[in-house]
Design a protein that fits this description.
This protein is of the alpha/beta class. 37% of the residues lie in helices and 17% in strands. The chain has 7 helices and 6 strands; from the N terminus they run βαβαβααβαβαβα.
């Protein structure tokens, strides 16, 4: 189970891992309303190195990226959920507009992005190349999105009073 760390704690943890000869992969995202696409992305990233660091956007940056009403879950909750995914070693919450600063700070051997990118289209590709890292595209095809789940939930009548299979929920929950 991954642990949520502050940036200084993360730098120390990564340094200890490197002293022990471990390689570092890095992934990032909002992870608002965690879904199977997120899990597959992080499992793919886990396979790229000995340790996986996941940077989770803070609430302010999610609101800027996703718009009104987002995030659904607070950054601390999203970080804890991401940390519970098998293979995630460390989670850090960040507020920058991009992960370039974190990439330069940690210098992971592999920067992992989802399949909505190509290696050539990853915005931070040049930063990663500048220190000798590589970019990997991981996860399944991008057919899952939190916004689609939110739309589906909004269209479901009495969703809170029904079980996932459509049966009415018992009065006590």
């Amino acid at each position: 189970m991954g642990i949520v760390l502050t940036e200084p704690e993360l730098v120390e943890a990564v340094a200890r891992d490197r002293e022990q000869g471990r390689t570092i992969a890095f992934a990032n995202g909002c992870f608002d309303l965690l879904h199977v696409g997120h899990v597959r992305y992080l499992q793919g990233a886990t396979a790229e190195a000995d340790r996986l660091v996941v940077a989770v956007n803070d609430d302010r940056s999610v609101a800027l990226l996703k718009g009104h009403g987002r995030p659904i879950l607070a950054a601390e909750d999203r970080a804890e959920l991401v940390g519970a995914i098998r293979g995630v070693a460390y989670v850090v919450v960040f507020g920058d507009q991009t992960v370039e600063r974190l990439l330069l700070l940690l210098r992971p051997e592999v920067h992992c992005k989802g399949t909505d990118y190509t290696v050539e289209s990853v915005p931070e590709r040049d930063v990663v190349l500048s220190y000798g890292g590589r970019t990997a595209i991981v996860g399944d095809q991008k057919t899952h999105a939190s916004r689609d789940l939110l739309s589906r939930i909004a269209r479901t009548p009495n969703a809170a009073r029904r079980m996932p299979n459509g049966e009415p929920r018992a009065p006590n929950g």
